[in-house]
Amino acid sequence: MKLERLLSIIILLLNRRMVQAKELAEKFEVSIRTIYRDIDAINAAGIPVVTYQGTNGGIGIMEGYRLDRNMLTNDELATIVTALQSIYSSIGKEEHHILMEKINSVVSPADAGEFQHKTNRVLVDYSPWDGMERLQPKLKLLEAAIDCCMLATFTYSNAKGIISERKVEPHILILKGRQWYLKAYCTEKQDFRLFKLKRMKELDLDRESSFLRRELPTQESSEYKRRLNTSKVPEIVLRFRNESRHLAEEWFGVEELTAMSDGSWQVKKAYPEDEWLYSFILSMGHHVEVLEPLHLREVIANRAEQIVKLYRNNVIT
Q1: What pLDDT score was predicted for residue 305?
Q2: Which residues contact residue 293 at a Cβ distance below 8 angstroms, ignoring those fewer than 6 apart?
Q3: Among 2, 151, 307, 316, which has the minimal tally of Cβ within 10 Å of its Cβ?
Q4: Class of the domain covering 230-313
Q5: Residue 211, by phi and psi: left (phi above 0), alpha (psi -120 to 50) or beta?
Q6: Domain boundaries, the chain
Q7: Whether pTM exceeds 0.85
């Protein structure tokens, strides 16, 4: 990720008089061109990084410059470490852990105890329960594609099960709701699209071609929001038994529940009707009953019957 790479480069340059661009590129597994873009960004932030030409040349911070430790308070440093810990839990890159250690090292011994307390108050952990082993190679490839502006190709299966071959210009990786997505410009659709990494197969990079980064749409909207705006969205009424109230609160939030006279709890929500909705309702099992609309009630009943037949008729021997 770019932020921690920039911070790592700054700290490394503060501790060493000069570093070669090739060494930085190898250390952070990016291209030399990306390193020079990072150096431009650091310069733009007000830290004077200069390039020395010649056999013994390299990249270094202007002689005499020192980063004022007081420009960042302990609270601000703790916020950075907390963010890095959360990123580390989701990605697990060793560079993140090293950077956290470097930041901890600049805190005075007298403040170390309080600093550790502040960095351990919050942890945002979006890592999936089944681990990151299968996603890590995809993330690494796509990070390289984004850094070096390389086209990516893959086979994609959308939410309806339709399989297609895609060639895209990768722009940004997004972690949302425990799922990783790629925001990319699709050369076939001639527009930005959101691709779920778990639905990608045969991911590869076209290392012989590159693209110019495009400006991301000013008003980002998910596929879900687009469907809300372009289709008629019915209101769905669900009923939960009293003993399932805690599950209803977990799924929808306390504020969404309405107490009924028979002791049950009712939830009214507007959702686009599609395969995701059917799967979502079925995932709640016997804890929920669809009251409205009636046709949705029939769809869920039919699918539940198919599940029962599958298990009743196919006896494992």
Answers
A1: 93
A2: 234, 236
A3: 316
A4: alpha beta
A5: beta
A6: 2-67, 70-119, 135-219, 230-313
A7: no
The architecture CATH gives domain 2-67: Orthogonal Bundle (1.10)
Q: What is the pLDDT of residues 197-245, one digit of tens each?
A: 888 999 999 888 889 988 887 654 444 455 445 456 788 999 999 999 9
Identity of the residue numbered 260: M
Measured between alpha carbons, how far apart are the two ends of the chain, in Å? Answer: 51
Q: What is the chain's alpha carbon radius of gyration, rounded to the nearest angstrom?
A: 26
Per-residue exposure over 45-79, b if at least 16 CB sit within 10 Å of its own CB, e if not? eebebeeeeeeeebbbbeeeeeeeeeeeebeebbe
- The answer to whether the beta carbons of residues 256 and 223 sit under 8 Å apart is no
